[in-house]
UniProtKB/TrEMBL annotation:
One of its GO terms (molecular function) is DNA-binding transcription factor activity. InterPro entries: AraC-bd, Homeodomain-like_sf, HTH-like, HTH_AraC. This is Lactose operon transcription regulator. The gene is lacR. Keywords: DNA-binding, Transcription, Transcription regulation. SUPFAM superfamilies: Homeodomain-like, Regulatory protein AraC. Residues 176-275 form the HTH araC/xylS-type domain. The keyword Chloroplast does not apply.
Length: 281
């Protein structure tokens, strides 16, 4: 006989990260489960008593403060002890993001953790179960459960850390570099070709990626960047117009800068300073 103090199953709302079920179970002496796991990941945290967990030919004697993780495909057996049957909280999780984050913790490989300080993990899984017990969507408890899920994954990684690598998409890194290059060098006479070369991208690919992510071209982004900084110089300093032109990359002809500024703001630099400069406030 198994005594379930709580069993709650949820509709799958998020295929990247989801709490599917959770519960609180009181063990009966010498009673347990033997089966092949069909669920993605189920974490058990023992809060009282003792029991045994058997997997891959090894039997673990578990007690309060230990935990074990079930993963899809595992053949397992776990049973409450005769003299001091365990109680545990459990939560079933699923989703690509959940498994990615679980893989940052050694629990994904060891599946059993003993004699460790799991106070944070225990607190969060109990929060999950007690929130589920009195679930009120009108109070946005579904959002709270999502928060607890990520707290649980974070606590697992911090308590049982594991070396992992995270590789950003190469394209994203290069576009970030292109943005950084422009932000750091807009004051110089740089061209789109120079930006592409510095970012190790072709000019056409740089253009297509900027259009995709920022809905503008690299040339227009650089122009907008220069105009922004020019406006800030006009507002916050008394520098002459020709000096500001040089500070934002117009080194050859201040008139070209003034014309570009007027097209951008519908007023020339002097009019802009008169309207918004520090001497006007």
């Amino acid at each position: 006989m198994i005594v379930q103090l709580l069993w709650k199953k949820f509709k799958k709302e998020n295929f990247e990260s989801n709490i599917d079920e959770c519960g609180i179970e009181l063990g009966t002496p010498n009673v347990g489960y033997t089966y092949t796991v069909t669920k993605t990941a189920v974490l058990h945290v023992i809060t009282q008593g003792t029991g045994t967990f058997t997997y891959n030919g090894q039997t673990y004697h578990l007690k309060k403060g230990d935990l074990f993780l079930l993963k899809e495909g595992m053949e397992v057996s776990y049973t409450a002890s005769k003299n001091n049957p365990w109680s545990y909280y459990w939560a079933r999780m699923s989703g690509k993001q959940v498994m990615t984050y679980l893989s940052r913790s050694s629990i994904i490989d060891k599946v059993v953790e003993q004699q460790q300080n799991i106070s944070d993990i225990s607190r969060v899984i109990q929060d999950i179960c007690h929130t589920a017990e009195n679930m009120q969507i009108e109070n946005s408890d579904d959002i709270l459960l999502s928060q607890y899920l990520f707290e649980l994954l974070y606590a697992l990684q911090k308590t049982f850390p594991k070396k992992f690598t995270y590789t950003e998409q190469e394209v994203d890194q290069k576009i970030q570099f292109a943005l950084q290059f422009m932000n750091q060098n807009y004051m110089y006479d740089i061209s789109v070709s120079a930006i592409a070369d510095a970012s190790n991208l072709s000019r056409s690919y740089l253009y297509k990626t900027f259009q995709k992510h920022f809905s503008t071209s690299p040339k227009d982004y650089l122009h907008n960047l220069r105009m922004y900084h020019a406006s800030q110089h006009l507002i916050n300093s008394n520098d002459p117009i020709y000096a500001i032109a040089e500070k934002v990359g117009y080194h050859h002809d201040p008139l070209i800068f003034s014309r570009a500024f007027k097209r951008h703001f519908n007023m020339n630099p002097s009019e802009y300073r008169s309207a918004f400069g520090i001497s006007q406030h």
